[in-house]
Write a structure and sequence with these properties.
DNA replication inhibitor, coiled coil, 3 helices, DNA replication, metal-binding, about 120 residues
């Protein structure tokens, strides 16, 4: 009987050691996964920061464009503002084929009128 107890103790110790060895390797695998996830999370955080900065720059650029657009509308001379008002009411302000003052068909845009209003300022 004494030999059986010794053999049982030996097996229990061996199983205990093997269990600790298995737990050690599982812990190492888990640490490797944690490091991989940590690295991926850092990459995502960096990308997010870059996108936030880019988004802010785009918002600033959009605000500049809107301001510029508002200033362009206000930058028209008084006579061009009057022509713009007539054009928006549906009349031609260009003198192509003596169209000045005639009603635009279905209020379709006229590039010649737009050139007179917004074209190169002399």
């Amino acid at each position: 009987m004494l030999s059986r107890i010794n053999e049982g103790d030996f097996l229990n110790k061996r199983e205990l050691y093997d269990s600790f060895a298995d737990m050690g390797s599982e812990t190492k695998k888990m640490l490797d996964k944690i490091e991989t996830i940590k690295a991926e999370m850092m990459r995502v955080i960096e990308k997010n920061a870059e996108l936030e900065i880019e988004n802010q720059h785009l918002r600033e650029h959009l605000k500049e464009l809107e301001t510029q657009k508002q200033n362009d509308g206000q930058g028209l001379s008084k006579s061009r503002q009057n022509l713009e008002m007539l054009y928006e009411e549906g009349f031609h302000v260009c003198n192509i084929d003596n169209m000045y003052g005639t009603r635009r068909i279905n209020d379709e845009p006229c590039v010649f009128c737009q050139d007179v209003i917004y074209g190169e300022r002399r």
